[in-house]
Design goal:
single chain, 3 domains, 15 helices
């Protein structure tokens, strides 16, 4: 035992795992003991064990010095058939969420981490206003339910409230895993139901009008790639010239660009190779129209670089979506400028992300199988694609109606399905659906 501290600790092996065992006395002078798992098996390297022990001891010391350790008795027998006494950390919520966010940051995508962080801050703000004295061990499902109900009353969408629920559930699950909590405080709750999302999209004629109003605009190439490939905003901005193989005729999605704040609090663009899912990393055929635009853009970039000389920004050299000064176009600029242009020209309002839905709707209207569309868009599972776009399968519904009418009999053919707007076919030069359809089928193979 280490005798120089107000508590002592040793390492011990139990059930094939290494533990740090703390020994100390409570205010009444009664001896207490706390077992904390290192998470390491009995057979592990000495270096790994020492690092784990050092981290656990340091964490316990911080809680001890901040008077965050209280003691309760658990009448749960251990392997030696003796009553075990357990230390409960009476931690403030702000301290807990800070600890949780620090623990998960290394293994979370930047956007995922920021989402968790914002959701934790919202919950702490609510608790501070309505239940200021509640600590982590006091928290139960009624507090969380009150928070979610409050958000619903504010008019927050069910899908957003569901994200709040999942973030908090993940945090408290970590607390249980780390033995900070004995029981998950949300076990008695039911996940909020999210409303079904109806995708908004442009039909073929609307897309061609969109292309017309963006001619010569700095977002022109970005808008075309979004409509033809259905790529996410961050995926388009993450494209580099080495992602495009003009000889093989392929384009590979392997990076993303996100906006975040650096350590000094300044807004900054970050390039990440960790994508949303394994399916997100994909190689697609290079559509001739997009290839032509890319080659022109590459030529113009070289021209601007020579004109700019030393003043040309080279921080993001090699990226496709840079402006004439070499600066990478930011995600916020894409969202803002896209909205401003369509508003100025009186086009139907939709989000930039809805160009992804527009691409999917055109593929469906031209009889591309749902499985091929899943692979084209990079969805993790078939269910995601089916849930988003099943209501757009016009031809399948019309065929079903005609088939049942033919089998059961009837003088008239079944009427065409008209609940949803069917994209019209046009001969426009810019939106070559046959090319997209063929390319999507090739990607599925």
């Amino acid at each position: 035992m280490k005798a120089s501290l107000p508590y002592k600790y040793i390492t011990s092996v139990k059930n094939g795992k290494h533990y740090v065992v703390f020994d100390f006395k409570d205010k009444a002078g009664k001896r207490k003991r706390k077992w904390i798992s290192t998470g390491l098996p009995e057979k592990c390297t000495k270096k790994a064990l020492n690092e784990a022990v050092e981290e656990i001891v340091s964490d316990f010391a911080d809680k001890w010095n901040n008077n965050q350790v209280t003691i309760t008795v658990s009448r749960k027998a251990d392997n030696d058939a003796e009553d075990a006494e357990k230390v409960v950390v009476n931690q403030e919520l702000s301290s807990f969420f800070s600890e949780w966010l620090t623990a998960i940051k290394a293994n979370s995508a930047r956007t995922t981490f920021q989402c968790y962080k914002r959701n934790a801050e919202r919950f702490m703000k609510f608790m501070g206003e309505h239940f200021p004295d509640v600590t982590l061990t006091d928290l139960n499902h009624t507090h969380v339910q009150s928070y979610l109900n409050h958000k619903m009353d504010e008019g927050v969408k069910g899908s957003t409230v569901k994200q709040y629920y999942l973030s908090l559930h993940s945090a408290f699950m970590w607390a249980v895993k780390m033995e900070i909590l004995e029981q998950h405080p949300m076990d008695k709750m039911v996940m909020p139901r999210a409303e079904r999302h109806e995708a908004v999209f442009y039909n073929e004629d609307e897309l061609n009008e969109l292309f017309r109003v963006f001619e010569g605009h700095k977002l022109e190439l970005i808008v075309h790639i979004a409509a033809y490939y259905g790529l996410r905003r961050c995926e388009i901005l993450g494209l580099k010239w080495d992602s495009i193989d003009f000889k093989k005729g392929t384009i590979t999605i392997e990076r993303k660009v996100v906006s975040d704040y650096d350590e000094s609090g300044q807004a900054k663009l970050f390039v990440e190779t960790r994508l949303k899912t394994n399916s997100t990393r994909r190689t697609l055929p290079l559509i001739p129209h997009i290839e032509e635009m890319l080659l022109k853009k590459q030529e113009m970039d070289e021209h601007y670089k020579k004109l700019g000389g030393k003043n040309y920004d080279t921080e993001f050299e090699g990226f496709v979506c840079c402006d004439p000064f070499g600066k990478l176009i930011s995600p916020n600029t894409v969202t803002h400028d896209f909205h401003e242009v369509i508003k100025k020209h009186g086009l139907k309002m939709l989000r930039f992300h809805d160009l992804r839905h527009s691409c999917a709707s055109l593929l469906l209207a031209n009889d591309i199988p749902m499985k091929a569309i899943q692979e084209w868009l990079g969805h993790a599972t078939f269910n995601i694609t089916a849930n988003l776009y099943s209501h757009l399968e016009y031809n399948a519904k019309v065929t079903s109606a005609e088939t049942i009418a033919r089998v059961l009999g009837g003088k008239k053919e079944a009427p065409a399905y008209t609940d949803e707007p069917v994209p019209k076919k046009s001969d426009s030069r810019k939106m070559k659906n046959d090319t997209i359809a063929e390319s999507s089928q090739a990607a599925a193979v």
